[in-house]
Specification:
4 strands; 46% helix
């Protein structure tokens, strides 16, 4: 039987550096996943506060929706969403929610954004510039994205650890419950969500 390789690091800062390099590589190829409307939807890297292009505006908005879902899930199982492992703790920052949402970004958020673009459910008229050079979605577009988000949450997935079908919208709750069980010593390891 093949043994599982365990990777270790000397500090959280080293791990954050590895994560930063991985994120840079991931977002460096994100543009290749955009198959339609290339003149209006392109990604030259991740940017925010404010987002500088249509793709980053979509990602920022959907990441905010995801963060609220994860934060609520953590609170519902009795965990403080502001006490994290990976993201540094700062007043008002939901560090644990940010930690946990990393598992879901590609599967829930990024996939939705790419679907909206590639299926032409959004177009350049859905965005507008502001006075500081940022890109914002129109009010109607935000409503449409929220509707697509809600629809996505109703889809079912077979949870790889729980070995049962659950709605996608319950993934944050299921993982928060598993995190709480791990922290309380009920299970030996936290089973990170990985969809294959």
């Amino acid at each position: 039987m093949k043994q599982k390789q365990v990777l270790r690091t000397s500090s959280a800062d080293v791990l954050r550096g590895v994560e930063g390099e991985a994120a840079q590589g991931y977002f460096g190829v994100f543009d290749q996943l955009i198959l339609t409307q290339k003149e209006d939807f392109f990604m030259k890297g991740r940017n925010r506060r404010p987002p500088k292009d249509n793709v980053n505006a979509l990602l920022s908005f959907v990441y905010t929706l995801l963060m609220h879902e994860v934060r609520a899930a953590l609170e519902s199982v009795g965990l403080d969403p502001c006490v994290g492992f990976f993201h540094t703790d700062r007043p008002g920052r939901a560090s644990l929610a940010l930690d946990m949402m990393e598992e879901f970004r590609p599967y829930l958020a990024d996939r939705l954004v790419l679907s909206l673009i590639n299926r032409k459910q959004v177009s350049k008229r859905c965005f507008k510039g502001n006075e500081v050079g940022g890109i914002l979605m129109t009010d109607d577009t935000r409503k449409d994205v929220i509707a697509a988000w809600q629809k996505r949450k109703q889809e079912e997935i077979h949870h790889p650890y729980l070995q049962t079908a659950i709605p996608v919208g319950l993934l944050p709750y299921a993982q928060a419950l598993l995190m709480a069980r791990f922290i309380r010593g009920d299970i030996d390891n936290y089973p990170v969500f990985v969809n294959k």
